[in-house]
Write a structure and sequence with these properties.
Layout (H helix, E strand, L loop, with lengths): L4 H12 L4 E5 L3 E2 L39 H4 L2 H9 L2 E4 L6 E6 L2 H10 L4 E4 L4 E6 L5 E5 L2 E4 L5 E2 L9 E2 L2 H4 L1 H4 L1 H8 L18 H16 L5 H16 L7 H13 L4 H15 L2
Parallel strand pairs: 6-10
Antiparallel strand pairs: 1-2, 1-3, 3-9, 4-6, 4-8, 5-6, 7-8
Length: 282
Amino acid sequence: MTQQTPIRRVALTLAAAGVPPLPLRAGKVPFGNCRACKGNACGGRPNMKTAGPCECASVCHAWAAATTDPRVLTSPAWASAWRKAAAIAYHPGGAGLTVVDLDDAAAIAWARETLPATRTVPTTRGEHWIYRGAMQGANAVRPGVDIKSLMSYARWLGPGTGTMTDLPDAVRALTVKKPSTVRPARSVVTAPALAGGGECRHRTPVYLERGIRMAEQRITEASCAVHTTVYRTFLAVLSAHGWCGCLTDVHVGRLFAAAQAKGESARHCTDAWTNARTRLGL
């Protein structure tokens, strides 16, 4: 019996309970994609919400590798990963859960004052607060706080203690109010009125809404090169609407949300938006 055997046994127990596990290597990171899937060249997996047809049997695509299928978890293709695994993670969103990852004492104190009590799991530096219900995962929603749910993974550190409660609106609101979502929009340049005295057509609800909706669709339908697609879409939106000041925090938030639903981090969204503005001289 090898040292990794108990890890796989725990994974199978989680899978039987409807919690999709995946192995982690040293450093608490997933195993890298296989050669055929490197750089997402395969187009991704269906459960990554991409159009790609990839059905790789290896432990690929990070959180999307998590599964409750015992045939996959015990397959020869996964055997090497289990032998090398240093820990187990799981896909909270796949189990209908959300993990509020509190990274330090200050974050824990904030949660105790702000959020309803629920099941808690101690971590190396803080706590995981686990709620019933899924939402889009996001990092750094406030100092020391990450959200692990859909399209993300959390380390399995045991079942925890306490009674699990429903996901509160206060947690959902964290991904709407985080500064990285709204900060770029506040610095959009407002141009003077048109020389002819007419109203900027970008401010008309139909024209602006159509532009934002098309941008969301372009990001959502990206099957590869998501980073590039997000940047080019942000650039196109700013080229059309960035000069007249018609963009609001709500519009920018929608674009960021579409990008994060494709797996982009909040930080990358902010960087892409800033780079697009810099290129245009805004």
